[in-house]
Amino acid sequence: MKQAWAWLAYPIRAVERSFFLKMLIGMLAIIIVTVCSLGINFYVVTSKGINRDAVANMQQLTDQAVLTIESQMETIRNESWNFFGDSELQTLVKSGFGSPDATSYFMSKMGILERNNPLIGAILIMGKDAEGRIQTGVSNYYGNDGQRQTFEEEIARLQQVAISRNGTGAWEFSRLMNRTEHRVMPTFAFVQALKDVQKDLQPIIGTIVILLDGEMLQQWMDSLQAQNSFAYAVMDRKDGCPVLRTASGSGSCASAIETAQMSRSEQQSYKYTDESGRRSLVVYRAISQTEWVLVGKAPLSELLGQVNAVAKRTLLIGTVCLIVAMLLAAVLSSKVLRPIKHLRLGMRQIEKGNYKIAVPVETKDEIGFFCHNFNRMASEIHSLIRQVYESELKKKDAEIKALQLQMNPHFLYNTLGTIESLASIPGSEEMIGDICRSISSMLRYNISGGRYASIGEEMKQIRQYLSIQKIRFGSRLEYELRVDEQLSSVSIPKLLFQPIVENSIIHGIEGMRRGGKVCIEAIALNERELQIRVTDNGIGFEPMKLQSIRSGLNGKPLSASAGQTDASIGIKNIHSRIRLLYGDAYGLTIESGPQAGTVVALTLMTAIPDGEEARDGLQSASIG
């Protein structure tokens, strides 16, 4: 007994320790249910195939019917063209049908054509202004004087249609009395104007009207319905109304307009419609060289009655199997995927920065192994956070120092250039002495230690620099410094905006004969942010140059070797320095235009970022 239990427990333990086996068993169960469902669903697919076959069959029958009527209509059109091109007939018409022999000849010819084509009911050849005519078969369309008058009025209308087409044949719908049926029946008429082809302008000399037998047309329509369960109708594309239909033909003006319009496209020849909750299949085909469409319609309930019953039964079985499969999959997944859910929740905590998370280890399989190693990984990451944090802080300090050192040579170069210019002027020793004292004070400020200074101290440094430039430019340079009183003691990065002031003078004002003005102001935007603006009324930047500078603000810090100007380097490095200290939400913006001056705005925080002030104090102490 114990041995049998051991053999039974072995595969259970194997499954408990293997996530793969759990998923395999689950998938096998789902596959079995799915295969059974697919087998049953085969009936649904078969139903669709039968439906497609029915559509194809109906399309084929409709196409054959249209081809038949088109063939008959084309034959009649060709016969009309034979009359049109007959020079003897043209001579007869122009003479007012004055030749008895020619009249008898063409009457005989028209009679033969009528007898050989049962679809033709009557043929009329008339002069343009009712100057005589020859005809055959017209007695089938009236039995008394009133009916004859109606017939003549319709013939006159058709004659006008033919004249309006100017020699081009056309099919026209007509309604005429049928003596056999003793009622007015719809029919088709082919009309064409006769023209004198021997003259240059080819004037119209008469008309040809060929009437189709309405009874034969109706028999053709009824024969279509006899072949299948469709009700047929010939629709007029102009207004969507039926002009000819079977006894049970369907299609009112309102319901057929869309079908008639769709028939203009050859991309599709059938569609499904819903009328009063009854779904039907509509097959349509345009009759060439006319504005008519042959439309067939049959309710799907009649067309696919037996197939629909099988499909409904099969779908019911398939639905039950699907529900069972879903329930089975839910039970299996709840057991297999519970540890994965715990692991996912743990990962979300890691994303939020909580590295103290520990997910429960409920199994000994592969998922349990993942959970155990996840907990160990989270613990190791938590212990390494402080080391990485300290390393990043040191790296940040080094980058800031590098940027600051990169700006200082530019300032010294520009200042020494000013001294060199003054040295060539006699009697400038006192001014050179003032410049040297200012430089000495500025250099002492620069190496005094610390990476931050108050805005007031920075403005004092800028004032010394501007006093040097004032000596050089004289009345050509004006400057103004404005600081909100509450901002004087706010700490900002040291020597932050001095390069901007240098650029304003050298690149904005120096090249102007009349000189210019530089304005430096510090304003508070809100309790947390301030802005330092350096404005000049110099020559400004061209649009392409301004766009180049703006595009370069998001790259790496620039150097002269990169092929950039000093102005670009200074602006770029200041922007990088601000973003490195305060974050990507802060930095430098520039607005300028040709001969419109330049405005450079530096957006900063009113407080030194956390930890920066302490490190700045340590750095100052070590330098001192």
From TrEMBL:
Residues 334-386 form the HAMP domain. It holds the Pfam family HAMP. SUPFAM superfamilies: ATPase domain of HSP90 chaperone/DNA topoisomerase II/histidine kinase (SSF55874), HAMP domain-like (SSF158472). Its main location: membrane. Keywords: Cell membrane, Kinase, Membrane, Phosphoprotein, Transferase, Transmembrane, Transmembrane helix. One of its GO terms (molecular function) is phosphorelay sensor kinase activity. This is Sensor histidine kinase. It comes from Paenibacillus lycopersici.
